[in-house]
Amino acid sequence: MRWLMGIKVLHTEWSDGWGGQEIRIINEMIAVREKGIEVFLACRDNSTIKNKAIENNIKVFTLPFRGNIDFKTMFALIKIVKEYKIDIINTHSGKDTWVGGLAAKFSGAKFIRTRHLSNKIRSSRLNFINELADYVFTTGESVKADMIKYNRINPNKIVSIASGIDEKIFDPNLYNIAESKELFKMDDSIIIGNVAVLRDCKRHDNFLEIARRLIDSYKDKKFKFYIAGEGPMRDFVENKIKELSLENDVILLGHISNVPQFLKTLDIFLFTSDEREGVPQSVMQALLMNKNVVSTNDGSTSDLYKENNFLISDVDLESVYKNVCKMVENLDNKNFLNLDRNFIVENFSKDSSTKKIINCYNEMLTV
User: Fold this and answer.
1) Do 206 and 222 sit in the same domain of this protein?
2) Are residues 343 and 195 in the same domain?
């Protein structure tokens, strides 16, 4: 049996963005480091994750990651493995999975492939890199099932591990609602909010369409809508707000660091994504904060569902809107939802996810 203190893991990431995937990587590295595992990151020079890793005292190697077959990057990774005695290479995006996976095989390191998205991977025999992995981590049960079915992954070498959320931070008892509302300059309206990168797949257009309908349908109620997050669709979202005449009703907060306090203020957390999610982190966070959640059944979101702990629907606008109306009409009904924070803590918290990851490390390295 190897001692945990001796394990060294090199993560690779091609993406230069900053969203749920990149946040998970950094949080996962910090979590396992707290258990005595040494972590490293290889990424592109212009990536946001590079700066976040440096901020958290993680050693970073910058490499080109120009494509699937980038020999310069692959040989550089092999050199890093040899020099730093890396035990495991954990890859995260498509391009770095090819070069990182091959580098692991040529260097003798173990190879973990983490699949974050829920869209299916091509089943072609030429797309064999995932089959070479010693272990595959997915971020949801539906992703795991698809990879077994379509990508020939050994069921004994794949596990769904959601992005663990720190339940000690996302604890509703830590935050005062009046102080939190004052922080965001909120009034006594019904507050409906969302936390997501401004990307097309998050369907902020549907969020805004629902906002318009609620205002028009419930004349006796006062609503305010808050969107937390930044991203490439900022102009689109701003234009949609103007198109729907919502300038006085929707507030774009941009990127926020105090997410728990923001969630504390909400009467309803509304998640409208329609593709590519694993188990969405923001929905987990809202459920840990005991919020009323309305969400699309996107990706592996249903992994979080247990006995009516939130409202989940198909991804189309009409289905989501009907559930939002149900929630609005039952805000004063304490028995409408079966809020179960313990279920989320036991299955999707930082500690539970970290234990699953380390168990896999040990299994691979003691074979």
Assistant:
1) yes
2) yes
What's this model's pTM, rounded to 2 decimal places? Answer: 0.81
**What is each CA distance from 46 to 18, 70, 93, in whole angstroms?**
12, 18, 16
The CATH number of the domain where 212 resides is what? 3.40.50.2000
120 with 101, same domain? yes
pLDDT band for 119, please (50, 70, 90 cuts).
confident
Write out the two tokens for 258.
Answer: 């105090």
Average pLDDT estimate for 71-90 = 98
The yes-or-no verdict on residue 2 having pLDDT over 60 is no
Q: Could you tell me how many residues make up the chain?
A: 367
Mean pLDDT of 85-108: 97
If asked whether residues 32 and 69 sit together in one domain, one would say yes
CA distances (Å), origin 348, targets 34, 278, 280, 284, 295: 18, 12, 11, 7, 17
Give strand ranges (E) for 211-331.
223-228, 250-254, 268-271, 293-296, 311-313
Q: Containing domain of residue 31, as a range? A: 4-164+349-365
Quick check: 101 pLDDT over 50?
yes
pLDDT band at 364 (very low <50, low <70, confident <90, very high): very high
Same structural domain, 149 and 209: no
The alpha carbon torsion through 358, 363, 155, 353 (nearest 10 deg) reads -10
Contacts for 253 with CB less than 8 Å, ≥ 6 apart? 184, 226, 227, 228, 229, 262
**Residues 204 and 324 reside in one and the same domain:** yes
